[in-house]
């Protein structure tokens, strides 16, 4: 089921790529700039929706790291979680 889902989205992406290529040939650079902006919006939305890595983390900690570290909040949070895991393992041993 998962592979069929991926194949479906890959076929959509290929069709969109062909459509965009034709638009660029017909309309020029303005449409290219618009498409890049739309892709950036869609990409950011996708990453916000599919952030499953931090499902088990307290939402207040995620909020803190987003405010403190800005764009680099994920890296900082991963580093923090890694250090906490090591600290707990040392404490257990």
Give a description of the structure.
The protein has 93 residues and is an all-alpha fold. The protein has a domain at 28-92. The chain has four helices and no strands. It has helices at residues 2-27, 29-49, 59-69, 73-92. Helix 1 (2-27) runs antiparallel to helix 2 and helix 3 packs across helix 4 (73-92).
Reconstruct the topology from this structure.
Elements: H1 2-27, H2 29-49, H3 59-69, H4 73-92
- Euclidean distance between termini CA atoms: 42 Å
Q: Tally the helices.
A: 4
List unreliable stretches of 5+ residues: none
Tertiary shape: elongated
Estimate the helix proportion, in percent.
Answer: over 70%
The fraction of residues in strands falls at under 5%
Tell me how many strands there are.
0
Helix and strand run? HHHH
Helix vs. strand class: mainly alpha
Mean pLDDT: 81
Query: What is Rg?
Result: 20 Å
Largest sheet: none
Summarize the structure.
This protein has 93 residues and is an all-alpha fold. The protein has helices at 2-27, 29-49, 59-69, 73-92.
What descriptive keywords fit this protein?
elongated; 93 residues; mainly alpha; 4 helices
């Amino acid at each position: 089921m998962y592979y069929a889902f991926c194949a479906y989205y890959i076929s959509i992406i290929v069709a969109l790529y062909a459509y965009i290529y034709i638009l660029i040939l017909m309309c020029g650079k303005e449409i290219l700039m618009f498409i890049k902006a739309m892709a950036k919006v869609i990409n950011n939305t996708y990453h916000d929706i599919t952030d499953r890595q931090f499902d088990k983390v307290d939402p207040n900690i995620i909020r803190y790291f987003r405010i403190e570290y800005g764009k680099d909040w994920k890296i900082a949070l991963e580093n923090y979680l890694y250090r906490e895991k090591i600290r707990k393992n040392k404490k257990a041993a």
